[in-house]
Design brief:
Helix content: 25-40%
Strand content: 25-35%
CATH superfamily: Ribonuclease H-like superfamily/Ribonuclease H
CATH architecture: 2-Layer Sandwich
Shape: globular
Distance between the termini: 70 Å
Oligomer: single chain
Strand order of the largest sheet: 3-2-1-4-5
Low-confidence stretches: 147-151, 153-158
Length: 164
């Protein structure tokens, strides 16, 4: 049996405004092979793009049971997956991740963003270039949380009676 080398998956997400136009960037490396991927949306959030970058990178890997070392500057992604942070939002993307993850042997490493790491810097440029393109599609999974600021509470339908 031939042992396959590990795959290094570098990811980044970005948004101009949060929410706003957003993009994701991926650099995959395995031995001498290298592949770059990116995409963007008209209105989304940074956290969605960070998570989508991981998903898109994993979707591009065709080997089953591959050892994949993921490097991300997203505390949100890395700590959710390594420290059990609650998944309060982006349930559509977490479901996609959960469907992909069992195919691989995954490890996650947080790296400081904008600190000169060549692959992370490249992912950032890919993400920014992606959200800067014209005519970006809608992120159909993004649902803006309702804002309750400056709204009076409504008590319609309440009778004031104690439940029996």
């Amino acid at each position: 049996m031939t042992t396959r080398p590990p795959i290094y998956l570098y990811t980044d997400g970005a948004a101009s405004g949060n929410p706003g136009p957003g993009g994701w960037g991926v650099v995959l490396r395995c031995g001498d092979a290298r592949k770059e991927l990116s995409g963007g949306f008209a209105r989304t959030t940074n956290n969605r793009m960070e998570l989508l970058a991981v998903i898109k990178g994993l979707e591009a890997i065709k080997w089953e049971d591959a050892e994949v070392q993921v490097f991300s500057d997203s505390t949100y992604v890395v700590r959710t997956l390594t420290e059990g942070w609650k998944r309060k939002k982006n349930h559509d993307l977490w479901a996609r991740y959960d469907a992909l993850a069992p195919r691989f042997r995954l490890s996650f490493t947080w790296i400081k963003g904008h600190a000169g790491h060549p692959e992370n810097e490249r992912c950032d440029r890919l993400a920014v270039e992606a959200y800067s393109l014209p005519n970006l599609p809608e992120d159909t999974g993004y649902v803006q949380e309702p804002s309750f600021a400056n709204q009076e509470p409504s008590f319609a339908g309440l009778t004031g009676e104690s439940p029996k």
